[in-house]
Amino acid sequence: IYLKIFLLLRRRGKLAALSIAAMVILVGVPLWWKTTQTYRAWLPVAQINELAKLQLQLSADVEVVFARGTATPEQQKKVPVTQTQDEDHAVDEDTTLRYRHETRYRTATVMEEDALKQPTAAEADLSLHRLSESPCGSLVIYVIPESSSLLPENVNVYIGQRRTALLRIGAQMKVGKTLKQLLAHLEPRVKQILQVMSFSHNDITAALSDRVRFSPDNKESIADSMRAFKSSPGYEITFSLLNPDPKSHRLHWDIEGAVQTYIQPLLTKLSPVANFSLDSQILYYAMLGVNPRYDSSRSAYILNADSLAHVINPVEARLGSNAASSNPVLNFLLYVPDAHHSPLYIHDHKKREVQTNAFHSPRWGGIMVYNVNGFYQTGTNFPVDVNINMAKVMGVFLAQLRLLLGVQSTAPPSSFQVAPCGSSGLADWELDRLMWSRSVENVATATTTITSLAQLLDQIGNIVINDNIAQQVSSAVTSLQLAVAELEVGNLGFALQYSKEAILASEKAFFDPSLLHLLYFPDDQKFAIYIPLFLPMCVPILLSLLKIVSEVRQRRREKQAKKD
Length: 564
Fold this sequence. Notes:
By secondary structure, the protein is an alpha/beta fold. 45% of the residues lie in helices and 19% in strands. Strand 5 and strand 6 form a beta hairpin. Helix 12 (428-459) packs antiparallel against helix 13 (467-489) and helix 13 (467-489) packs antiparallel against helix 14 (492-510). The two termini are 33 Å apart. InterPro entries: PtdIno-glycan_biosynth_class_S (IPR019540). The chain crosses the membrane at residues 15-33, 527-549. Pfam families: PIG-S. Keywords: Endoplasmic reticulum, Glycoprotein, GPI-anchor biosynthesis, Membrane, Transmembrane, Transmembrane helix. One of its GO terms (cellular component) is GPI-anchor transamidase complex.
């Protein structure tokens, strides 16, 4: 009886061990695996890999209009005609650029002929603009005869404030020539105009500075790209008046009126590129932190170019910052020297006096020294009331603001005449050049950000990819594809808008707090947690299974021995 009970208990023990083992393997392990696995939402990896090979095509529409007297009747019969010119550039192994200019040749209409009869080129430019406004990113070149009085004798090309240019050709260019020969003569001159008014290869490669390396012969574009702020959805502009000695002078500046008159028109025109916010402040007892050198021959103090770099840091500590905004800050400082260090002049590296008495620091802002020593007379009662000439100050700050925002103008040939910017401080074609560069820069930056994020998530498999991150990544990829497509067809406004959406979505996904690797346990820490939990439970089960297996093998050997 005891033997039967022993065998029965032994059999039940084996069945219990097998049941527990089966429960652990079939239910426990899958349940543990499912409840502890890292959630990773789907990402469009294939599309991201396609965008990593950046292939951009920039297309611009150009219209060349022949005025009366610039083409023969036989030549006029063969227009309108359209020509397309492609220019390919392999920037590096992952980046290729194609520039396409679709040029349409036609004759001027009656109203355009009347507009070209204006006494000056500026009036003709305004009249032509009133007739029809050219789309963003396009250009219209009016070919006028040599006898036209719109341009001076030594000027062959006039570039207006809008998206139009006047090109004068000689009478010998059309006589005895076919239309094809006439267009061939015009082609190099049209290219010169495009280099000034439209995008250039140097501007586009400078916009790709974060993605590709510059060649040594591209020093001008390197300097321009390093000077200007990187593309951003918004900028903070701060105007500061530095009064180091309030006992010497009491300063009055109409900063609000000056901003509305000189700065706001420019910012309004730049609204498609970014949003701007402005503020101003007056800092008392704010010193430059550099002792200027006294020049006895001029009875003035000199600030050398070598010491300008040491001026910014002491002043910057007093400026403060807007902690509520992550946008870049452009600082414009107006420094009025105290009576003991006045007048103060800035000299360049060649020891020559800077006419504006100002300098700018790349991706930071500008500083202007405003001397008021003329107010100090013998027997003057201090403090002296000083009214600052805001027109003089804002003229300097406006020029610095254009440089810091990346408004770059290629130096035109000697036979070119470029019209002044006007009250807005920015010509339409200058805005187009900036929009081309910003669109390409945004596309390149967003592509690099998304590609880096995809590589990071692929290398670190235990980072959770939430649905909102996947949505931001998909949104960025979609916006990038749309921006590239709009650049290809020449819709500059839409391309810039989609590129801004792409860079916002990509950075929001990349800097999401849930992607921080420190929030998750490395593999060695996981083993340290799971081993004390599972080892006491698994050892008895494994020993029971090993004993059952050994008994089964023993029985097989005994059966085999009996058969033998």
